[in-house]
Design brief:
303 residues, mainly alpha, two-stranded antiparallel ribbon, globular
């Protein structure tokens, strides 16, 4: 007689264990995200300054942002410039380093760790203060320029034309997380593809464009979404290094939102600004998901 496979029977206790394990995350999600999000959405339709009773004013906060608030437009402009420059540079640099680390080198593990360290500490207040000292008046960069005879009347952070570049440079420096994701994806590409290309006499740049890049498109897509979201949420660097100056040239959107909430106590308006940011990120994400079929290659898809 053939051995019959025993069917797995799930008991109510199994579900209970699952819910118990899920409980801490679920409580945190509801208490720290869902409830505050709902309250914030309600406040965005009110006139509320933390002291008075919220008074419903409809869409006035949203209309005010787009029709009356010039600083909102400036903060949005700065953030868009930051994202549009930062994201391609960070991803390109992360991919370049990942390809270097994908080869066999001595002390390879040490190099990977060193390249990842900036992503761990890069967004901290302490590092932002150090960055401010490097590019500020009498900082390292100003000293080096003077050594080479290049006189500067104003530091990089004091010049409205260059201050944002310093913030972007610090963002690019934090490429470690994207690099590790790219490195993991590079190791999943079958080496037989490269062998076939070498037999056919393909040059390195051809194999990169025709093999490496297409096989990495799902990872590029994933990294692109993450970095766009992180780019729109930039706050610490702008707040600590320049405090939005000079002349609001580094005033990020989240920094302006923070000022409206905790400097001017305009909580209703700041909640509206927060939901506008959510809508902007959602639009960018939806566009990427809508267009991925035109440039993202998945092995499971039949050609």
């Amino acid at each position: 007689m053939k051995n019959k496979k025993k069917k797995t029977v799930y008991k109510p206790i199994d579900n209970l264990v699952g819910y118990l394990l899920l409980g801490p995350w679920l409580l945190g999600f509801i208490g720290m995200w869902l409830v505050p999000a709902v309250i914030s959405f309600y406040y965005s339709f009110t006139d509320f300054n933390l002291l008075n009773t919220p008074r419903i004013i409809g869409f006035s906060n949203y209309m005010r942002a787009f029709t009356q608030d010039e600083t909102f437009v400036q903060a949005l402009k700065v953030t868009f410039i930051y994202v549009l420059i930062l994201v391609p540079l960070r991803l390109a640099f992360a991919l370049f380093v990942a390809m270097l680390l994908n080869k066999k080198h001595k002390f390879l593990g040490l190099y990977r760790t060193l390249y990842y360290v900036p992503s761990i500490i890069g967004g901290s207040i302490a590092v932002s203060v150090v960055w401010k000292q490097i590019f500020g008046n009498k900082g390292v960069m100003m000293t080096l320029l003077s050594v080479f005879g290049i006189g500067q009347n104003m530091s990089f952070l004091g010049n409205p034309k260059t201050a944002l570049s310093v913030i972007i440079l610090m963002g690019v420096w934090q490429f470690g997380s994207s690099m590790l994701i790219f490195l993991s994806a590079l190791k999943q590409i079958p080496y037989t593809l490269y062998e076939s290309a070498m037999v056919d006499g393909a040059k390195p740049h051809y194999t990169f464009l025709k093999i490496t890049l297409p096989m990495l498109t799902p990872t590029i897509f994933f990294n692109l979404i993450l970095q766009i979201i992180n780019g729109f949420r930039v706050f610490t660097e702008s707040y600590v290094i320049t405090d939005g100056g000079p002349l609001d040239s580094t005033l990020s959107y989240v920094l302006y939102l923070y000022r409206r909430a905790f400097t001017f106590f305009d909580m209703g308006y700041s909640c509206a600004l927060a939901w506008i940011l959510v809508a902007i990120i959602a639009v960018f994400t939806a566009i990427l998901f809508k267009t991925q079929k035109n440039w993202v290659y998945y092995e499971s898809e039949e050609g």
